[in-house]
Design goal:
This protein has 141 residues and is α/β, with parallel strands linked by helices. Helices cover 40% and strands 13% of the residues. A three-stranded parallel β-sheet has the order 1-2-3, with helices on both faces. Strand 1, helix 1 and strand 2 form a beta-alpha-beta unit. Helix 2 packs across helix 3. The longest helix is centred in the first third of the chain and has 22 residues.
Length: 141
C-alpha cells in the first residue's frame, strides 16, 4: 500500500560457482548448495519483474564462506585441531587467503542489506550481490 517495498533474500555464494570438490554432490555439498542457491537467484529475478510495478524491489545477497559465524567457528576449530595450531593462528591463516586480508563480519552483510532496504536503492531490483571479500573468482555482471 505504501508504494515501496523491499525484499532481500540471503543465499550462499555457491550460486555463483561450479566448485564440486566438496561433498561429491551429496545433500549439503557445494554442488547441491550451488543448485539451491542458483534457484533462489532465479526465483528472485522472476519475482522482481512481477513486483517492480508495485514499487517492490527484490534482491539477493550472497554472504561468503569466509564470514564469521557458527559454521566459521566449526571450520576454525577443525583447522586448528588438524594443524595443531591455536584458534588465532588458524584464523590468521584463513584471513591471509582473503584478498581483503580479513574475515567477513556479519556487519559487512548487514550494511548491504540496510542499503538495499533504503530509499536510495529503489532502482535496484532483481540483482544478486556477493559480500565475499574478493574471494569468488567469477566475474558477474
Amino acid at each position: 500500500r505504501s508504494g515501496a517495498g523491499r525484499i532481500v533474500m540471503i543465499g550462499g555464494d555457491a550460486a555463483r560457482t561450479t566448485l564440486t570438490q566438496f561433498g561429491g554432490g551429496k545433500p549439503g555439498s557445494s554442488y547441491a548448495a550451488g543448485l539451491g542457491n542458483a534457484l533462489l537467484v532465479n526465483f528472485a529475478k522472476r519475482l522482481s519483474n512481477e513486483t517492480a510495478k508495485d514499487g517492490i524491489v527484490i534482491n539477493v545477497v550472497h554472504p561468503s564462506g569466509g564470514m564469521k559465524g557458527e559454521r566459521f567457528e566449526r571450520r576454525l576449530h577443525s583447522r586448528a585441531a588438524t594443524r595443531g595450531i591455536s584458534l588465532e593462528e588458524a584464523e590468521s591463516e584463513l584471513a591471509s587467503t582473503m584478498p581483503i586480508r580479513r574475515m567477513i563480519d556479519p556487519g559487512d552483510i548487514a550494511s548491504l542489506v540496510l542499503f538495499l532496504t533504503s530509499a536510495q536503492a529503489g532502482a535496484i531490483t532483481g540483482q544478486s550481490m556477493a559480500v565475499d571479500g574478493g574471494m569468488n573468482p567469477s566475474v558477474n555482471y
